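Appendix B, record 7
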Amino acid sequence: MKTVVEIMARALVDRPEAVSVSEISSAHSLIVELKVAKEDLGKIIGKHGRNAGAMRTIVNAVSAKTKKHIVLEIME
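Structure tokens (predicted):
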């Protein structure tokens, strides 16, 4: 899951080297934290949150297949 989020984020931003993704795992859930450069935060979120919503939709599709609750958090 970490790789999928990282590929999507690097495609959206101007500074792909500043993209960092970490995972926090527990028994039944997984939290994916996405950190980008401050000037790229708007590109990740998108107009009216469309980019962030699309990324979360993809993450939810994967979570349904793996039967593990996955949450995407976009960090500042």
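Remarks on this record: The two ends are 20 Å apart (CA to CA). Residues 2-75 form a domain with the GMP Synthetase; Chain A, domain 3 fold (CATH 3.30.300.20).
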